[in-house]
Amino acid sequence: MDIQTTAGTDSKTPSFVYHALKLFTHVKPGEAVTALLLTLNVFLLLTAYYIIKPIRESFILSSWTPEDKAYLFAAMAFFLIFVVKGFSRLASRVPRQKLISWVSFFFIFNIGLFYVLHLAGLSGKAMGIIYFIWVGIFNVTVIAQFWAFANDLYTEDMGHRLFPLIAFGAVFGGFVGSTLTELLVGALGEFPMLLIAAAILGLCVVFTLIIHHREVRVKKAAAAGSSAPGVELEDEKPVAPGGGFKLVWQNRYLLYIALFVLLLNFINQNGQYILDSIAAPAAEKAAAAAATAAEHDQLKRQFLTEFYAGFMSLQGLWSMALQLFFVSRIFKWFGVRVAIFILPCIALGGYLSLSFFLSLGLVKIFKAIENGTDYSLMNTTRHSLFLITSRVEKYKAKAAIDTFFHRTGDALNAALVFLNMILLKMSVSGLARLNFVFVILWIGVGALIYREYKKRTAGGSPVRG
Predict the structure, then answer these.
(1) How far apart (Å, rounded) are the C-alpha atoms in residues 234 and 465?
(2) C or N terminus of the chain, fewer CB within 10 Å?
C-alpha cells in the first residue's frame, strides 16, 4: 500500500509564505515545506552543474574542434547503455535515499580524482575527452534521479501545481552557477571551481535525506491514524525488478516520450553545433595576438569560458522569466498536453530565421531562448509526463529515457556532422534548414504523446503497477 499524503502537515508555515508562492503556482496548506526543500535541492544541484558545464566547453573547444565535440556525444550514448543497466539493477536492490546518495557520492569522488590528476600534471587533451564524457553522464544521471524522486513524492495533481515552483529552483541554479563561473574562473581557475561544485553536491545529498525522512515520517503518521497501521511504505523499499529499456519498448506512451526526447536533443545539439562552429573561429581570432603558444591557448580558453558562461547566464535569465511568470499559468490554462508543443514552435521559427540570417550574436540569442525554454517550460513538462506512470517506470524507464535516449539524440547529431564533413557538405545555414525539417517531425511525435496522455488520464483511470 502506498499512501500519497505527500508534503506533510506544515500548518505552522506563515501565511505570507503561501501568498509569496502564488507568484509561481498554487501551493496548498501542508505542501510548502517539502516543495521548498525540493526547490532548494534542485537549485544547488543545477548550481553545481553550471559550474561544471562551462569548464567542459572550454576544455573541449580549446583543444578539439566542434566536430570532435559532436563525435564524443556518440561515445556518451554507448557508455550510457551500461550506466542505465547498472542504475536499474541498483534501484532494484536499494531504497531511493541510498540510490540517490550512492550515485551522488560516486560523482563527487570523480571530481576529487580530476583535481588530483590536475595536480599531477595530467590535464591535457586526454583529460578534456574524459571530462567531457563524464560531464555528459553526470548531467543526465544525477538530474534524472532527482526528478524521479520528485515524481515519487507527488500525485499527478500535486505535481502539476508544484513542479513549476520546483523547476524554478533548477533554472535559478543554472543562472547562479554560470554567473559564478563567469565571475570567478579567471581568479580561481577551472579546477578549484570544480571543488566548489563537489561541496555543493554534498549538500544536495543532505537535502535529499532530509526530504526522504520527512516524507516517511509524515506517511507513517498518516498510516498510524488510518485503518491500516503498521503499513510498509513503498518509499522505504527498492523499486520492482525490470530493466529500464524493456519498460520503454513495451509501453507505447513511454516509447513516444523517448522518441520525443531523442528528437529534442538531436535538434538542440545540432543548434549547439551551429553555435560552436561560429564561436570557435571567434575565439581563435581573440587569441591571435598572443606572443607564445601557451599564451594563445590560455587566451582562447578564457574567451570560450567567458563566452559560454555569458551565454548560459542569458539563457538562465530567460529560463527564470518563463518559470516565474508563465509555466504554472500555461499548466493551469492549457495543461501539459499543450505545453509540449511550445518549444517546437519556437524552434520552428528560430531555425527558419537562421536559415537566412546567421551571425554569432543572433545564434547566441536564439540558442539562449531555445535552451532557456527547454530548461524551464519543456523541462517541467517532460518531468510532469511521468506523474501518471508507475513507480518502476518513474525510476527505471525515466532513467533510460533521460540518459540513453537523450544522448542518442546527441549521437545521431554526431553522425550527421560526420556525414556532412565527408559527403553532404552543407553550410551552417543548411544545417539550420535541416533542423527546421526535423522540428516538423518532432511536432508529430508530440501529437502522439498528446493522444496517449489523453488515453491514460481518461476517466481518472489508475496508473498500473
Answers:
(1) 12
(2) N
